[in-house]
Amino acid sequence: MTVNDTAVNLSELDLLRQRNAELKAELEAEREEKRISAFSFMEEIDKLKKKNADLFTENFDLKVANFRK
């Protein structure tokens, strides 16, 4: 292996390391995006659960009021 070959291999290695770093950054960005999305869905689920509980209570109160008539 010549000095030139070694320089080329190091250059290729540097390019691969750079590409690897870019891919890791992209993957991390996607993970963060999905984490935020999952958190948003969980918040929406909590809101819907609360609304469901409120509607259940309202429905129950209306049934009781109707029963007393």
UniProtKB/TrEMBL annotation:
Source domain of life: Eukaryota
Organism in which the protein naturally occurs: Rhizophagus irregularis (strain DAOM 197198w)
Highest classification ranks of the organism: Eukaryota, Fungi, Fungi incertae sedis, Mucoromycota, Glomeromycotina
Protein name as it appears in the record: Uncharacterized protein
